[in-house]
Write a structure and sequence with these properties.
The structure holds 2 protein chains of 2 kinds.
Chain A: E1 2-6, E2 12-14, H1 34-43, E3 52-55, E4 60-64, E5 68-73, E6 79-81, E7 84-86, E8 91-94, E9 99-102, E10 111-115, E11 149-150, H2 167-170, E12 181-187, H3 196-204, E13 207-209, E14 217-221, E15 236-237, E16 242-244, E17 252-254, E18 261-262, E19 266-270, H4 275-279, E20 286-291, H5 294-299, H6 301-325
Helix pairs in contact in A: 1-6
Chain B: E1 6-10, H1 17-30, E2 36-41, E3 45-50, H2 57-70, E4 80-88, H3 95-102, H4 106-115, E5 117-123, E6 130-133, E7 148-151, E8 155-159, E9 162-165, E10 170-172, E11 175-179, E12 200-209
Parallel strand pairs in B: 4-12
Antiparallel strand pairs in B: 1-3, 2-3, 4-11, 5-6, 5-12, 7-10, 8-9, 8-11
Classes of the chains: A alpha+beta, B alpha+beta.
GO molecular function, one term (chain A): hydrolase activity
Pfam families (chain A): CT_A_B
Domain Carboxyltransferase (chain A): 23-307
């Protein structure tokens, strides 16, 4: 079990999401950075669907009440277990009573506290993710609060002392100046409804992420985009990554907690393979959209998949060799 | 194509029940594809989300066009819901604005609203929210330029040509004309959303406060 000692608002329990209920108006929710959670779960030998704590605000302090292996992924931040500094993207073991403190990230925006076995909140509509709008899933459908107690699965022999190379360092980041986040996007259904100048502007200018950005969507600031003529669209289904342009002309990228339907014109869709970069881009960061084809969008997933495959292999080897050294060849359970 | 893993099919022409029934037919047909993760009906459109990015989206587009041309509109008998409404008052405070916009008396607006029978075209936006077709065009009223910040769940609303019942408490740009006490969504119910596509709704005045 884990007890939350200190938390700022906006931190929730999330897993890989709740697809399958958009036709009832229920969005997918789930972590904003699916890659970071996958890495955490692979490191800990968890199932893909194991849930974690997603942090958006800091500091965040928890106490482990039972022995646990854990990994903090997604960011680079000052982390301490009691007073001992620990590394992000690495597996550590906490003894009962030990306190983990996550400070303000040096890089990245969203941290994922993954624990061996996963955070064990009830599964609602196929997922442990917090559905804030519907008020269900996660911890009673709400943000975490100090004093909350989270069940974790009991752990047998725990391993620690190994980690992953942060994906941002491995995966090609095409970004020239290192400051602007480049996001590949496929032109959207209403792309041709915008003026030629606006279409050019959309790709050429740097868009600043405004403070009105959250898990629902990122509102961007820049020279407004204009339509050739005003249109009233009928409501249509939304997925994370869709870039809508409301009448004021500044785009919104819809994300994990977006409504399932909307009616603003769609200029483009950020490819799924790049959404994790947006999740880790902080307010005030400049982003640029890079036009890409459907094919490029699909191919873009390959480096991520091979990174995860390599990690899975390395972790399996390491854990197997540790276990054989310790005289056990399995973890006792299937 | 929406990104790499979703395709939006938009029906040509006006928003009629027949076009919507053809969308429903398309849903039933597309459900048989093994590569579908989610089908999200909109208003005369359908979003298809695939389990994996389709390699040849053009083939799927052709498949959709063929299906659209060949499938007959799908009739759904649906269930009939009778929804008691407290018209007007603080929870239906935009009744005056609807009345001013339409040039009809508030009594007339209420009469035209509860005389109609509505059909759930699609459920979406918020958990359990139904987009209703069947509003009398005489009481159609554009969305508000300044949305209400905290409209309660259960508010009976008009948004353009569409009618609805708000599913969640929160910001809402539709015009409130009344209030009803029904629970549109409960994740623990075996059917979480009260309304399903094809269901019909009648509003019955429980009280009127002008």
């Amino acid at each position: 079990m884990i007890t939350i000692l200190e938390t700022a608002p906006l931190n929730t329990i999330q897993d890989q999401g709740r697809p399958g209920y958009r036709n009832l108006g229920v969005g997918s929710s789930g972590v904003m950075d699916p890659l970071a959670l996958k890495i955490g779960n692979i490191l800990l030998g968890n199932a893909l669907e194991a849930a974690c704590i997603e942090l958006q605000t800091y500091p965040f302090v928890i106490r482990f009440d039972t022995p646990s292996s854990f990994a903090v992924t997604g960011i680079d931040a000052p982390l301490t277990l009691d007073d001992r500094p620990v590394l992000a993207w690495s597996v550590e073991t906490a003894a009962p009573g030990q306190v983990l403190r996550v400070g303000i990230p040096r890089t990245g925006a969203r941290a994922y506290i993954c624990v061996e076995g996963g955070i064990d909140v009830p599964v609602v509509l196929g997922s442990r993710s917090t559905q804030l709008r519907g008020g269900f899933g996660g911890m009673d459908g709400r943000f975490l609060e100090a004093g909350d107690e989270l069940a974790t699965k009991p752990v047998s022999a725990s391993l620690s002392g190994y980690g992953a190379v942060p994906p941002a360092r491995v995966l090609e980041n095409q970004s020239g100046d290192g400051k602007t986040v480049l996001l590949r996007a496929v032109p959207g259904t209403d792309y041709a409804r915008f003026t030629p100048e606006s279409r050019e502007h959309f790709w050429d200018q740097g868009w600043r992420i405004t403070p009105q950005s959250n898990r629902v969507g990122y509102r961007l600031n820049g020279t407004p985009l204009t339509l050739l003529e005003r249109i009233e669209l009928r409501s249509y289904g939304i997925i994370p990554g869709i870039v809508q342009v409301p009448p004021a002309g500044e785009p919104i990228v819809q994300l994990a907690d977006a409504n399932t339907a909307g009616g603003y014109p769609r200029i483009a869709t950020v490819i799924e393979a790049d959404l994790w970069r947006l999740a880790q881009a902080r307010i005030g960061t400049s982003i640029r959209f890079v036009e890409c084809s459907h094919k490029t969008g699909i191919v873009a997933q390959q480096p991520i998949d091979s990174y995860l495959d390599d990690l899975r292999l390395m972790v399996a080897h390491y854990r197997a060799s540790c276990q054989s050294r310790n005289g056990t060849n399995s973890r006792g359970t299937a | 194509m929406m990104g790499t893993r979703a395709i939006l099919f938009e029906a040509p022409g006006a928003f009629t029940m027949e076009q919507q029934q053809r969308i429903w037919a398309l849903i039933e047909y597309a459900e048989n594809r093994p590569d579908i993760q989610e089908l999200v009906p909109g208003v005369t459109n359908l979003l298809l989300i695939f389990t994996h990015a389709p390699e040849y989206p053009e083939q799927i587009a052709d498949w959709l066009r063929n299906a659209w041309e060949s499938l007959p509109p799908r009739q759904i008998a649906g269930r009939l819901f009778e929804v008691n409404v407290r018209y007007g008052g603080a929870l239906g405070e935009d009744l005056a604005a609807v009345s001013a916009h339409t040039g009809l008396s508030p009594e007339e607006v209420i009469r035209l609203h509860h005389e109609g029978e509505y059909t759930v075209c699609a459920v979406g936006s918020a958990p359990g929210f139904g987009y209703l077709h069947g509003l009398n065009p005489r009481i159609a009223t554009p969305r508000k330029s300044i949305p209400s910040l905290n409209m309660p769940a259960g508010t009976v609303t008009i948004g353009g040509m569409q009618a609805g019942i708000s599913a969640l408490t929160g910001p809402n740009g539709w015009n409130s004309i009344g209030y009803t006490e029904i629970c549109l969504f409960d994740p623990y119910r075996c059917s979480p959303s009260l309304f399903a596509i094809g269901d019909r709704i009648r509003f019955c005045p429980e009280s009127i406060e002008l």
